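[scheduler] slot 2 assigned
[scheduler] job type: sequence-to-structure, two independent chains
[scheduler] chain ordering preserved from manifest
[runner] begin chain α
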Amino acid sequence: TQLKELRRVVFTLFALGLGLPADFFASKTTTPMDSLNCIHYPPRQPDTPEHQMGIGAHTDFECFTLLAQDGTPGLDILSDEGQWCPVPCVPGTFVVNIGDLISRWSNDRFRSTVHRARNHSNVDRYSMACFCCCNPDVVIENLTYDPPKYPPVNAGAHMLARIGQANAINESKKDGSTLTK
């Protein structure tokens, strides 16, 4: 219940940040495509190459992610200058990663957070990610007065396409092949 309330508050803040009524997203999030993932990153072994990742650079597909961390560092975000910056673990807080759908809705006023996750420590690292989305039938289109950077897209179709792309990339890594667009 508290996580649902936090989710509602974050949607309200995005609406207000876009100059929309506070409840703008309420009717668009009645049957959302949310998911909750518990993620384990094993301790780094001494012979593990430095570049080996837990989860490589990506943006989240949904509207935003609420991330709880266990206190073990490992989340990095990519700065506008192209530098990886560690995200501090602050007890009792959530990290909010902006996802693709809010980015599209806001015409990049709120941009998707490029991030990666890894574990450089010698202890287990855990995080819990609540991927917050909208209803699958919602059309995502520019909510600003600026010329649109993206064409309208159906949220459910967007999610399925991004999941398909992610699965294709993972399959290509397994067999050594490469993907073509």
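[runner] end chain α
[runner] begin chain β
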Amino acid sequence: TLSLHDALGKYNKETPTAMETLLNNTNKTKVSYFFDHDVGNKHYGSYHPMKPHRLSITHNLILNYGLWKKMDVYRPRRATAQDMSLFHSSDYIDFLQRVVPEGVTQAGDALRRFNIGEDCPVFDGLWEYCQIYTGGSIDAAQKLTNTQCDIAINWSGGLHHARKEEASGFCYINDIVLGILELLRYHPRVLYIDIDIHHGDGVQEAFYLTDRVMTVSFHKYGDNFFPGTGDIEEVGISYGRQCSFNVTLTDAIDVKTYLSIYKPVIQAVMDIYRPTAVVLQCGADSLRSDRLGCFNLTFKGHAECVRFVKSFNLPTMIVGGGGYTVRNVARCWTYETSVLTDTEVPNDLPFNDYFEYFSPDFQLLSDPGPVRYDNLNSKQYIDNLKIKILENLRLLQGAPSVQMQEIPPPIWPKSDYEEEPD
């Protein structure tokens, strides 16, 4: 088994033999897309804001827009306990495998130990849910390391709060960390970008001591907003110093203000850190009128963040994340799939299985909702924040180098890889 330490210490330029594909994408940018129908059938609870059903709606829009024709479409293999143990503790993984709703009352100590409760409930099919979304991110990363695609999309992934030994913020397994570990087998430096309204704390914590991964999170900070981490002073320690960057925003930031700091920061990171692969977490709770959010991003503004990262032409893994106004999450990620495949799609939605969800206008780029808050991010605040972050970034003094060694084995053998057209 490849440990976190081993994964961080090894790099090789060898490229494994490309795997056979069943649905060929003829697009100039080669995009792989991962989806398992079963993921949308999971249910956190009637009153819980996290709705995996949003993934079924997104997928249905992607199908009915014909975007699947622009991608290689796969049903990912389900991650095993051994796969997840590359990051998570064996006790925690064992608990997730065994716990069922009927046994919750007898598992009080374990529930407290692993932070299972109202935010992260036990529900029917919990372990299968973790296997599906985690397997999608591992498969996506492996496609990239096999140089079989330029962009790999797993909208079911992006659960960035999960920690080594506990669940957090609706997240159980940190698929992003496991995907990055797979990328580190071949890539000397991986850049992680997070545009969810919540700080990407689980990913930052996992790589806080290494310069092999740089984390850049754009999130609301202050007012006891969850998870309460992500201060601008959190810059990494030991070898990881100056490899964690937190862009601390406040309520109701609009598109113009957001992009005025997003683009310069990402450009500087690309110039100085020089990543060889990128993971972009596209949490849709930064959209205006999100059920749990307080930013004012539009669909086009959110997608511009994706488009800008794509413009660097690096191997890129795209994952989902937060997003709690279901119809807007589906709109957002469908539109961003069109951006990633260089496809123009009509604003009028095609007829689909969830057409009534998009009443009354039935449009893809519908107004996300009213502006509920005034932008509290002044130009002076953003300018000062930008200066501070860029100054910290320049302290890195160039991209870290990595000794080339024998390549570690993949998380799972290529012969076990399950691929299936949708």
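[runner] end chain β
[qc] chain β: Strands lie at 31-34, 72-74, 151-154, 190-194, 213-220, 244-249, 277-281, 316-319.
[scheduler] slot 2 released
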